[in-house]
Amino acid sequence: MNDTTLPPLSPPLSTPLSPALSAPVYLACLGAALTVGLACELLGGLRAAAVLGAGLVALLGMRDFRVLAVAVAFMLPYVPTWFLSEGVAGVSGQRIVGLVMLLALVSVACGHALDPWRIRYPRWRPAFLAYVAVFVFAALNGARSASAIPEYFKVLEVVRETTSLGYLRVSLFAPALIIAGCAIVGLLAANVRDPRWLLLPVLSSAVLLAALVGLFALHGASTGADLAQQGSRRSLSVLGLHANELGLLLNMALALAICALGTARRAMARVALALACLALMAGVLMTFSRGAFLGLAVVILYALATARGRGWPLWVLVGLALAVALSSDSLAQRALHGIGGGDLDFLSSGRIDAIWLPLAPEILDHPILGAGHASILWSQAAQARTILPVSHPHSAYLASLLDVGIAGSVLTALFFAHAWRLLRRAARQAAWLDQGALAGFFGGGAACILLLLVQGLTDDSFMPAFTHVYFWLCYGAAVGTLARAQPARAGGPARGRPAAGEAS
Question: What is the spatial distance between Cα 95 and Cα 101, in angstroms, rounded to a whole number?
């Protein structure tokens, strides 16, 4: 009988854990179960899920900072809202996002320490740095006058604190999160393999916000006519922002989505972007803000003008928006409020006589450097009670001259001119690389600048604010995307992970 070599026995389908490993695994599972149960008992189901999910994101983010950067891009628009703070986590939205940003920076520092050439860093231009310097100077300049805010502003809850620290929390620390978020998204765009994925966290957060606006607008309103009333729109303030502010915020997100729709080439991307545009349009209309209606027209006209032969989905959206607007008497009533009466002050909802004219002479008190951010709070008109008790002049142009003066206004204008050119250049580069939706996304960022110039006539500010946070996310993404094309430093390898197609 010939000897034959028997084949080796195949391993069993499942190998039991050794006694040395079974005990730690059992204890880990038991600890996880106890942690989940204790969290649900102390925090409730929703908050426990939020806390545990945040812990998981933090663990993943310490390994790869891009996970935390995506979380920042999604959560940043919700910092001033009820949804992020009291609604989910029970603590300040500023602290939540600030902690995520801190963890992201720690993760970047660890990655840089392990491999200095692992991460590609974007280059921030002098115009941007000068603008940030104007913003910081305006806040520090105004902190000296915070104690002069009249007490009745605090009684009427126009402001919460009149101390220098309380003023800096609102005027410096909170808006600084926007600049930090812009920088983190720029870092993300410079190191992600395909920058087109940046549209997902940015636009999904905007769609969720539009849905919240619709829910809060319809809550307690029996008819559309109720929503068109001046006082009814205050129900949206429960979210943490005024109806006019929500209108500008959603319009900027709509500018990004609708311009991306005009350049998208894949059918699935077009369907998803079209649904996002419909949700955002509905959110803008539900604010019943005349400034938001005007901004919506600006966004649509810009998107149609830049569609370049692929505008048929945009025309469909425009047709739907017009059909809804024309079929709703309440929307028409709100849009035409004060038009045709010949009273400009009534058309401006009292801004001319009760805000702008009393404040205009105070520009000459500090013409060069201004009186500090939100200087309306301690203005002579506020002291004399000749203006409405408001926290900003309801005109970004007047606010700029009052707060940062001529010098700061010029530097601000130079920054937005630089941002316009940079966003247009990023759009051309994305189109050349055949990244269709991304090209429209950056083109929408340029539309956000036009939108701010138009809606800034009667509201908002040119300083960093959460009302135009989507513009800042787009600007950061454009800076980071352009950094991918920068040549490597002499004597060293190319920085960062290779993008798609770069490895070859």
Answer: 10
**pLDDT tens-digit map of 156-194:** 888 888 888 989 998 999 999 999 999 999 999 999 888
Rounded to whole angstroms, the Cα distance separating 182 from 200 reads: 16
Residue (of 228, 180, 232) closest to 472 by Cα position: 180
Amino acid at 77: P
Containing 138, the helix (H) or strand (E) segment is helix 126-143
**What does the alpha-carbon distance between residue 447 and residue 429 come to, in Å, rounded to a whole number?**
17
Q: How far apart are the first and last CA of the chain?
A: 59
Task: Give the count of alpha carbons within 13 A of 132, CB side only.
Answer: 15
Token pair for residue 43?
Answer: 């925090």
What is the reported pLDDT for 449? 95
Q: Which residues contact 126 (CB under 8 A, 6 or more apart)?
A: none
Does position 198 have pLDDT exceeding 50, yes or no?
Answer: yes
Nearest to 448 by CA among 430, 463, 467, 435: 467
pTM for this model (two decimals)? 0.83
At 294, the pLDDT band (50, 70, 90 cuts) reads confident
Please give the Cα distance from 208 to 282 (Å, whole number): 12
CB 254 within 8 A of CB 284: yes
The pLDDT tens digits of the residues spanning 248-266 come to 999 999 999 999 988 888 8
Contact 300, 477 (CB under 8 A): no
- Is it the case that residue 128 has pLDDT exceeding 90? yes
Q: Are 445 and 471 spatial neighbours (Cβ–Cβ below 8 Å)?
A: yes
pLDDT over 60 at 50, yes or no: no
The DSSP symbol for 502 reads T
DSSP state letter for 355? I
* Distance in angstroms (rounded) separating the CA atoms of residues 89 and 167: 25
Tokens of 100: 């995520």
Residue whose structure tokens are 């959206």: 317
Of 280-294, 370-384, 477-491, least confident by mean pLDDT is 477-491
Nearest to 355 by CA among 390, 384, 403: 390
Among residues 411, 424, 355, 413, the alpha carbon closest in space to that of 385 is found at 355
Q: How many helices (H) does the chain have, and how many strands (E)? A: 23, 0
Residue 94 has pLDDT above 60, yes or no: yes
Dist. CA 321–CA 56, nearest whole Å: 41
Q: Give the C-alpha separation, 291 to 264, whole Å.
A: 29
Q: What is the rounded distance in angstroms from the CA atom of residue 400 to the CA atom of residue 13?
A: 71
CA 231/CA 110 separation, integer angstroms: 52
Alpha helices in 404-468 (DSSP H): 405-432, 436-455
Backbone angles phi, psi at 38, to 5 degrees: -65, -40
Q: What is the pLDDT at residue 491?
A: 40
C-alpha distances (whole Å) from 43 to each of 35, 94, 98, 382 are 12, 20, 21, 44
